[in-house]
Design goal:
The complex is a heterotrimer of chains A (143), B (100) and C (135). Chain A is α+β, with helices and mostly antiparallel strands. Chain A has 3 helices and 4 strands. Chain A has one domain. In chain A, helix 1 runs antiparallel to helix 3. Chain B has a domain of 68 residues. In chain B, helix 2 packs antiparallel against helix 3. The two termini of chain C are 24 Å apart. The radius of gyration of chain C is 23 Å and the shape is elongated. Chains in contact: A-B, A-C, B-C. The interface between A and C is large, with 41 and 37 residues.
């Protein structure tokens, strides 16, 4: 427990940021996808974070207050109407010749991806700083 | 999981009879009580350290540096006690060797 | 022999207290221990803040270090409070990642200092004990 719970907090941060990055990469890869298994064009996905108690069987209320992890509470799909472009020769064109494309802003997603990467690195630094403190405490046991 | 107590605490209670030989006489009583008190202090440090270690190992919220400092304090107080005891025993033996 | 015993009883010094418990072994270490407690509590909060840097509605948490250090030392757990004066983003989150990064480094360094001070203090006592053996 104690400082070890803070390692779990950083780990939860890392995995949340990684999930966010994975979804952003999926969005970027599918920015022109007009056909999906569910029908219709690809819909942009977004992660929603929420703060969480880090699982621990013994933690007192106080310890839980100190160690708030993060988890992905839901993956929100873009529910807006997809963009329509006039491409009569396209295999996915409807009867009027319009093809539905994903409503996306790749520049926005790139910036988001950078932010996710920075967040991930920050959590890695936090974990290594805490690990260092734990090692110093262990050093107290030596000479 | 039952954590067995550190054996040095039983060693502490074994020291008390050896430090107060009967030949000290009536004036040895004060010294004996000082020793008994010292033993109880040292033993309380040891119990502190054992409790902190047990709490940490069983996963409850005990900080690692508490455990480290408590065990070091227990070690040091025990070491000091042993040195004092050795000195006392040596002094006693020295006195006993004196030619009357 | 009798005179020695009288001297011994009248000196008013509580020998066990002075030799085994008082000052040396517990004194300095207990202040540093309290300091290390506060530092590790603060570091836990920094880690939580960093993990929740993108959580909507999350507010930066901290402990009031100075007053906890001065105040009732060793009194259970420090109280967690929300930090004032931080810019709030559109989603309600007010974590400033630069502030957290600074605190992360600072806490680690301070903890390092405290643990080294404790070690050198313990080493001093140990040296006194082992050197006194031959004295």
């Amino acid at each position: 427990m104690s400082l070890f719970s803070s390692l779990s907090v950083s780990a939860s941060g890392m995995s949340a940021q990684r999930t966010r990055a994975e979804l952003l990469v999926e969005n970027l890869a599918n920015s022109e996808t007009t056909r999906t298994p569910e029908g219709g064009p690809y819909r942009r996905k977004d992660t929603v974070f929420q703060s969480d108690d880090v699982a621990s069987p013994f933690g007192s209320v106080f310890q839980r207050e100190l160690s708030q992890g993060v988890s992905v509470s839901e993956v929100a799909q873009d529910s807006r109407e997809p963009d329509k472009r006039y491409l009569p020769g396209h295999p996915d064109a409807d009867k009027d010749g319009y093809v539905a494309f994903p409503k996306m802003n790749p520049a926005e997603d790139m910036v988001d991806l950078m932010s996710a990467s920075r967040g991930f690195q920050a959590n890695v630094s936090a974990m290594s700083a805490v690990k260092d403190m734990i090692n110093r405490s262990i050093d107290l046991l030596r000479a | 999981m039952i954590i067995p107590p550190i054996s040095s605490s039983t060693a502490i209670s074994g020291i008390a009879p050896a430090a107060s030989p009967a030949s000290l006489g009536p004036n040895g009583g004060a010294f004996q009580s000082v020793f008994q008190e010292a033993i109880s202090h040292v033993s309380s440090y040891q119990q502190n350290a054992q409790a902190a270690t047990a709490r940490f190992l069983s996963g409850e919220d005990e900080e690692l540096h508490h455990v480290a400092i408590a065990t070091q304090q227990a070690d040091l107080s025990f070491q000091l006690f042993m040195e004092v005891r050795n000195k006392v025993v040596n002094a006693y033996q020295e006195v006993m060797r004196m030619q009357i | 022999m009798v005179r020695e015993a009288e001297c011994f009883e009248s000196t008013q010094i509580d020998w066990p207290e002075a030799c085994i418990t008082g000052g040396m072994i517990s004194g300095v270490a207990s202040n540093l221990e309290h300091y290390m407690d506060l530092l590790s509590a603060r570091q836990k909060l920094v880690a939580s803040n960093i993990a929740n840097a993108d959580t909507p509605g999350y507010r930066t948490k901290d402990v009031d270090f100075r007053s906890e250090l001065m105040g009732a030392a060793h009194a259970g757990s420090p109280s967690v409070l929300e930090v004032e004066g931080l810019a709030v983003h559109n989603d309600g989150n007010n974590v400033n990642i630069d502030r957290e990064a600074r605190l992360l480094a600072e806490n680690a360094i301070r903890f390092n200092v405290a643990s080294n001070l404790v070690r050198s203090h313990l080493r001093t006592i140990r040296m006194a004990i082992t050197e006194g053996k031959n004295g």
